[in-house]
Design a protein that fits this description.
The complex is a heterodimer of chains A (316) and B (170).
Chain A (H helix, E strand, L loop, with lengths): L7 H8 L5 H13 L1 H21 L9 H14 L12 H15 L15 H26 L9 E2 L3 H12 L14 E10 L2 E9 L5 E7 L7 E8 L2 E8 L2 E7 L3 H17 L43
Antiparallel strand pairs in A: 1-2, 2-3, 3-4, 4-7, 5-6, 6-7
Helix pairs in contact in A: 1-3, 2-3, 5-6
Chain B lengths: L1 H21 L4 H17 L10 H22 L6 H9 L8 H11 L3 H12 L4 H8 L3 H22 L1 H6 L2
Helix pairs in contact in B: 1-2, 1-3, 2-3, 3-7, 5-8, 6-8, 7-8
The chains are: A alpha+beta (316), B mainly alpha (170).
């Protein structure tokens, strides 16, 4: 590829996640050769992180009564056909969902801080169930949010899947990948990293010929006890979620339960089989027990890393 | 579509955060601004076209309300004891325990407002450059130069006031 000069504006666009894949690579090449520019990009990222540290607390403050009242009125005015499902009716749920999404949506590159303190063993199972339910809700909300506007549906496209998987693996500190769902008609279009209750998570987005989009949300639960498929439905979004090995998965889409289940089965067998890297394929018939071993593949090397990824979730 | 309601609440939470940051962490002023903006949004809901960018629409309304508030305050200056303002600004809030957060807060406060707005809209709220340009009514080149100046100014301040601070948060 011919070397195109990288502009000052592109350095900012790179930091802000507003560059397309080709130019992103050009900037990365530039940063690899220019230590001063790399330091600047790094410092800009830190500034963004500090802004979130300073002001994300506002998101956790419940809205004033007046704000909530105005929000409800505005909602009525703007969306006359808004058939709000029942779960929406609880203000705390609505507010919590909004918090999660704003944190997730902001800046593109920010991931949640703070992993939770370990809980007593006796509570662990109950907690896992609770955690998974929260995780599923986060997945559902993230699906709703990021399929709502095509312009910011993914943070990084799937043009280079190794890059995408490597980047998200680094973010999560676990080896994750977006399975190939081509055989059931869904094409991977990209992904993003998101904060979840479980720490950094990854969302992969797929689309089919009918423009129907599904998202696979991957999180890292503290206790990786294998859990069977569970199903939840919020409004028009269906979600299947389960735990396999060290990871929790949630598959969300505006589909019927039956349609989504077929896709979930395909995803399940793919993620169980492992990433389709250049390595020889792994044995797909491993017994489930073996899946529980923690796979700490923290230092998964990736070909090209955006500079922000020098941040490690564990440090924060 | 139920997702619309969720989107709206997401955007409003985002507005509240932006207002707080814009108004130097003054909670009461920020709540006033958001309420005024939402009131205006309700009154002008006819002007929103379904399917267009709801977030940009809301931020634009908030921006306009803020500009008007600043203008009317400038027209009728309120007597304020400087010491009061000063102490309000430097009183460490709970989340500002970390030194680098205090320094960041101060550095952001000291930015010219036009630069502060652009930085907050882009870095904190994740708006696209063209959305910010349209919202502020300036060319995109202006957005980029303000962003660049804001980031460099903060960088210089943080480096001067405690060279280690930047490295520590990583």
């Amino acid at each position: 590829m011919s070397v195109q000069r990288v502009s000052e504006d592109e350095l900012h666009a790179y930091v802000d996640g507003q560059l397309d894949g080709n130019r992103r690579l050009a900037v990365e090449r530039w940063l690899a050769d220019d230590a001063e520019a790399a330091r600047r990009a790094d410092d800009y990222r830190v500034q963004t992180a500090l802004l979130h540290d300073l002001f994300d607390t506002v998101l956790r403050e419940p809205p004033t009564d007046a704000e909530q009242d105005l929000t409800d009125r505005l909602k009525g005015r703007l969306a006359f056909n808004d058939n709000r499902p029942a779960w929406h009716a609880r203000p705390v749920v609505r507010w919590a969902a909004a918090v999660m999404l704003v944190v997730a949506g902001a800046g593109g590159g920010w991931f949640g801080r703070g992993t939770q303190a370990p809980s007593p063993v006796a509570q662990q199972q109950q907690q896992q169930r609770q955690t998974l339910a929260t995780f599923a809700q986060e997945a559902t909300q993230a699906h709703r949010f990021y399929t709502s506007d095509e312009r910011f549906q993914v943070e990084l496209g799937a043009d280079n899947q190794d890059e995408l998987n490597g980047w998200l693996s680094k973010r999560m500190g676990r080896d994750v990948f977006g399975p190939d769902l081509g055989r059931i008609g869904f094409r991977l279009i990209g992904g993003r990293s998101l904060p979840t209750d479980l720490g950094a998570g990854a969302q992969y987005m797929y689309i089919n010929d009918a423009d129907k989009r599904i998202t696979l949300f991957v999180g890292a639960p503290q206790s990786g006890n294998t859990a069977n498929f569970s199903f939840t439905q919020n409004g028009d979004v269906s979600t299947f979620y389960w735990v396999e090995g060290p990871l929790a998965y949630a598959l969300a889409g505006r589909l019927s339960k039956e349609e989504l289940l077929e896709i979930a089965k395909a995803v399940y067998s793919d993620v169980k089989a492992g990433p389709p890297r250049r390595d020889p394929p792994q044995d797909q018939q491993r017994p489930q027990e073996q899946q529980q071993q923690p796979q700490q593949q923290q230092d998964q090397p990736a070909g090209v890393q955006p500079i922000s990824d020098t941040q490690k979730p564990k440090d924060s | 579509m139920s997702k619309f309601g969720v989107d709206l609440e997401v955007h409003i939470a985002s507005l509240r955060r932006y207002a707080r940051a814009l108004l130097r962490n003054n909670r009461a002023d920020a709540e006033d601004l958001v309420q005024e903006a939402l009131t205006r949004a309700v009154a002008r809901s006819d002007s929103f076209q379904a399917g267009t960018n709801l977030r940009a629409w809301l931020f634009t309304i908030l921006h306009n309300v803020h500009v008007n508030q600043v203008r009317s305050k400038a027209a009728r200056p309120v007597e304020v004891d400087v010491d009061d303002v000063e102490s309000k600004l430097v009183t460490p809030a709970r989340q500002e325990e970390r030194v680098e957060l205090r320094e960041m807060m101060r550095a952001v406060d000291e930015l010219p407002e036009e630069q502060r707005k652009v930085l907050l809209l882009v870095a904190l709220e994740g708006l696209k450059y063209d959305e910010v340009a349209e919202m502020l009514g300036v060319p995109i080149g202006t957005v980029m130069s303000r962003l660049s100046r804001a980031r460099e100014a903060i960088r210089t301040k943080l480096a001067n006031e405690g060279g280690v601070a930047l490295r520590r948060v990583k």
